[in-house]
Amino acid sequence: MTENSFGAGKAAKLVVRRIIRAPREKVFAAWTEARHLIAWWGPTPSVTCPSAEVELRVGGRYRIANRFPDGRLLWISGEFEVIEPPIRLVFSWQLESQVTGAERVTVDFEVRGAATEVIVTHERIADAAARAGHEHGWMGCLDGLARYAESRERAC
To answer: What is the pLDDT of residue 2?
Structure first.
């Protein structure tokens, strides 16, 4: 599910939600540990994550690679602003190939019985086209996270 807010002259905001049938602590770990990120990250199944670096502390940096089917790499990087395990992450977001200002992403992990609702709020998006791209990307990433976390949960 997604929500949209975009006004004239204002940056866009995107909210994407997904219920994942796994405990919050495991979903948070899947998001914040590089070895897990590599296994599920990507806006579509054909886009892989060959590299992820996570320095999980306020002021720490992260860097995630998206490898597209044509071999092209797109790097996403930023800095952690808020870390409240296993409840919330807030971090800056920037495509390394772009010179525009950093966007901000907040990820909330809310308990829903035995499941976790992951709520991604992406703010400071420059325009509607970028917002649409982020929406597609986050929906695909959350699909991948759900497949990964739920399959690991069944294996336990």
So the answer is: 52
